Amino acid sequence: MFRMSPVRIAALLALAGCSDVEVTTYQDPKTDFTKIRSWAWFETVNNDAPDPDVSELSRRRIKNCIQSELEARGYAWGPADKADMLVQWVAVAGGTVELSPVGFRYGVDDPLTRGPPVGPANLSEGSLVIDVVSNQTPRKVIWRGVAESTINRSLPDEERQERIRVAVAKTFASFPSRRGSP
What we know:
By secondary structure, this protein is an alpha/beta fold. The protein has helices at residues 6-17, 56-72, 157-172; strands at residues 22-27, 38-41, 76-77, 85-92, 96-98, 122-124, 127-134, 141-148. It has one domain: Double Stranded RNA Binding Domain (2-Layer Sandwich), CATH 3.30.160. It has a 6-stranded mixed sheet with strand order 1-8-7-4-2-3, covered by helices on one side. Strands 5-6 form a two-stranded antiparallel sheet.
């Protein structure tokens, strides 16, 4: 007879509740991730206000989940001027956001360096995009993950937190690990 612990049952139920999360990823085939050891947050020069529909608590949760996924894969956090890769994310809780194509070089508008548009050009409510950018000049997206799901504003706080965790984990499922499997 097969038995499951209550913890596993709860985890499966939580995942079942997040089964509507659809993920697409892109990885630059020319990037050697075995040489990448450290990461930092990419601080953009764009001073646009963050999406007011994404609460500060949700922002912290997303950042903490991203950090946990990177650490589980063996990447160490470091100062931005010394990190091998930079991480930037955007969550869309209301309206739409236009997404730059993968291959876009940060700080340089050079159409010759842009890769093919990967994923949707316009993201709508319920989207989370995580960009990993090389920290070498010119900076360029070397990995992108996009998670899309339906937003249910009536969920209890614990369930919203679990949905964020699952969405980030599913997004990073194909991200190269320095430790075998996370």
